[in-house]
Amino acid sequence: MRNTARGHDLVALRRLNTTVVLRALHRRSPRTLAELAADTGLSRPTVEAAVEELAERGLVGEAADGPGGRAPGRPARRFRFRTEAGHVLGVDIGLHKVVLLLADLGGTVLAAQRRDIDPEAGGGARLELLRHETESFLDAHAPRRATVLARCVGVPGVVDTGGVVTSVVVPEWSGVDLGRLIEDDGPGHTLVENDVNLAVLAERWQGAATLAADVVCVLTGHRVSCSLTIGGRLHRGRRGGAGELGLLPLLGLNTAQEALRWPGARREGESEVAALARAADTADPRALAAVAEFADRLAPGVAALCLAVDPELVVLTGGATPVGRHLVPLLQERLRPLALHVPRIALSSLGERGVAIGAVRKALDHVEEELLADTAS
């Protein structure tokens, strides 16, 4: 019994050491064996054994020489975390479009696809479209299905901690475990998250909020919804509904997008809001009045979140960002009499990929949590 227990302890210790080395390489690559030993506090033979095991698993490889080539003599071998060892899929299925991104384990987007959706499509039709678009996209761009280690799908509406959609933005999806319905037989786990929650993750990762901790994100366009981070972490609330002020008609966010309707001329392929922005840029009084009305409708809801959270930053993202140059100063002006402090307001630079980028980030977080978990216990 004692030998069996000791053997188990040794196996657990080797797993822990391997995880420690993988964490070090994931955090910083490339590294030599000596550098890894210094970083981890492990002996060089222990590090060497861990690197060999990780190389067999395809997670670590030897780094190529830098642009200057190798220095004279026999330089130390350098090892790196192989970001190409796996992939993640980020999907944004909104009311009007579906966006798909395939990324490696370093977060580099390798392929992207966008398709318009009939906004009147029902839940069943949307589900079939989501399945078809995902499968065809992966068939076209993923080297092998086995390399897709996680998928995350952003959807409109509230999503609980178990990934079940609980709101009625898409009525037929209310109460549906969407992740279970779109999972295939591959190894990757499927996550489902509220789209504006993913938008704020994207802004914290690559967008306007990389240096801010307490952030309110306002997703604007065909509908308006909000999310927030507190202390740099997404705040979902007990059931995933934190920030969903658009569900409260008294605040007017549920009808704010109506102000962006633009009856003026459009260029070929130009969206309604892009045409409105172009008109506002020429000081068209009707366009400026429309943006002002949109600011009037946004202000009460944004002010309520500012009073509740006191954020350092508000990020405007989504379909209305083309009018942002005119919207930001108007919104700041309207917040002054409503909030104790008016935070800085920034426009997202991520465009229509914002939610899908956040989905990639959440999928990467899941993969990293599994790869870098303490497997000794």
Label this structure with key terms.
single chain, 377 residues, alpha/beta, Arc Repressor Mutant, subunit A, Nucleotidyltransferase, domain 5, 3 domains, five-stranded mixed β-sheet, 10 helices, 15 strands, 39% helix
Report the β-strand fraction as a percent range: 15-25%
CATH superfamily of the largest domain: ATPase, nucleotide binding domain
Structural class: alpha/beta
* Strand count: 15
Overall shape: elongated
Number of domains: 3
**Sheet bearing the most strands, described?**
5 strands, mixed
- Helices and strands, in order, run as HEHHEEEEEHEEEHEHEEEHHEHEH
Mean pLDDT: 89
Fold and architecture overview:
The protein folds into three domains: 2-81, Arc Repressor Mutant, subunit A; 85-198 and 355-371, 2-Layer Sandwich (Nucleotidyltransferase, domain 5), CATH 3.30.420.40; 210-349, Nucleotidyltransferase, domain 5 (2-Layer Sandwich), CATH 3.30.420. It has ten helices and 15 strands. The strands form four sheets. The protein has a five-stranded mixed beta sheet. Strands 13-12-11-14-15 form a five-stranded mixed beta sheet, with helices on both faces. Strands 1-3-2 form a three-stranded antiparallel beta sheet. It has 377 residues and is α/β, with parallel strands linked by helices. The longest helix is centred in the first third of the chain and has 26 residues, at 2-27.
